[in-house]
Amino acid sequence: KQEVTQIPAALSVPEGENLVLNCSFTDSAIYNLQWFRQDPGKGLTSLLLIQSSQREQTSGRLNASLDKSSGRSTLYIAASQPGDSATYLCAVLSNDMRFGAGTRLTVKP
Amino acid sequence: EAQVTQNPRYLITVTGKKLTVTCSQNMNHEYMSWYRQDPGLGLRQIYYSMNVEVTDKGDVPEGYKVSRKEKRNFPLILESPSPNQTSLYFCASTKGQSSYNEQFFGPGTRLTVL
């Protein structure tokens, strides 16, 4: 059974800092990995989807990488802003979808 | 606008009173699913549907029912709600018949069972 772990559980950084969020999974037989953002009390917004054949995807200040062999993905956020404060979830897509518990990010002005 | 909608967004009910949470998508997606999100447990899949009239259990199906009579709708039914079903519920849809394409989520339904 696939297990997805996100470390750290919470992260607080000053505005402008570059940061990395980590996601690890136990079974490397995945199709894709998706990163989401969730604001308090709100739904999930898809940020990036990495196909299993890809190693990274970029969207604006976000860059996500995937290393299937080591069971890891990272989400890099450049020049963080207070508006980036949210919980970030990674989800591993195989025969079903497994979510990590999320990293709660706070970017202080 | 492509979207997944859920209703109601908030619901407070009492133990044993049947309720239905509706989910609808306008993207002609085949795959739809329901999740619940609980503190410390993350998102867990309740049921999913690969197409009309095809549904299957996820990780935590006990106490829930679903139906898929039309492609766009996938209601979640709680026949006899209990307090342990108090949670935040999300509906999601995906193009194709599996979960391995990009998933689109609804805004969530916060359910409280007293």
Task: Indicate the low-confidence ranges of chain A by residue numbers.
Answer: none
The share of residues in helices of chain A is under 10%
Determine the N-to-C terminus distance of chain B: 36 Å
How many helical stretches of chain A?
0
SSE topology string of chain B? EEEEEEEEEEE
| Structural classification of chain A | mainly beta
Q: How would you describe the shape of chain A?
A: globular
Task: Work out the strand percent of chain A.
Answer: over 45%
Number of H- or I-type helical stretches of chain B: 0
Count of individual beta strands of chain B:
11
Look at the helices and sheets of chain B and give the structural class: mainly beta
Shape type of chain B: globular
Report on this structure.
The complex is a heterodimer of chains A (109) and B (114). Chain A has 109 residues and is mostly beta strands. In chain A, 0% of the residues lie in helices and 59% in strands. In chain A, a hairpin with a 2-residue loop joins strand 6 (56-59) and strand 7. By secondary structure, chain B is mostly beta strands. In chain B, the strands form two sheets. In chain B, strands 2, 4, 5, 6, 9, 10 and 11 form a seven-stranded mixed β-sheet that branches. A four-stranded antiparallel β-sheet of chain B has the order 1-3-8-7, with no helix packed on it. The radius of gyration of chain B is 13 Å and the shape is globular. The interface between A and B is medium-sized, with 22 and 24 residues.
State the main characteristics.
heterodimer; A: 109 residues; mainly beta; 6-stranded mixed beta sheet; 5-stranded antiparallel beta sheet; 11 strands; 0% helix; B: 114 residues; 7-stranded mixed beta sheet; 4-stranded antiparallel beta sheet; 51% strand
What's the arrangement of secondary structure elements?
The complex is a heterodimer of chains A (109) and B (114).
Chain A: E1 4-7, E2 10-14, E3 19-25, E4 32-38, E5 44-51, E6 56-59, E7 62-67, E8 72-77, E9 86-93, E10 97-99, E11 103-108
Parallel strand pairs in A: 2-11
Antiparallel strand pairs in A: 1-3, 3-8, 4-5, 4-9, 6-7, 7-8, 9-10, 9-11
Chain B: E1 4-7, E2 10-13, E3 19-25, E4 31-38, E5 42-51, E6 54-57, E7 65-66, E8 76-78, E9 87-94, E10 103-105, E11 109-113
Parallel strand pairs in B: 2-11
Antiparallel strand pairs in B: 1-3, 3-8, 4-5, 4-9, 5-6, 7-8, 9-10, 9-11
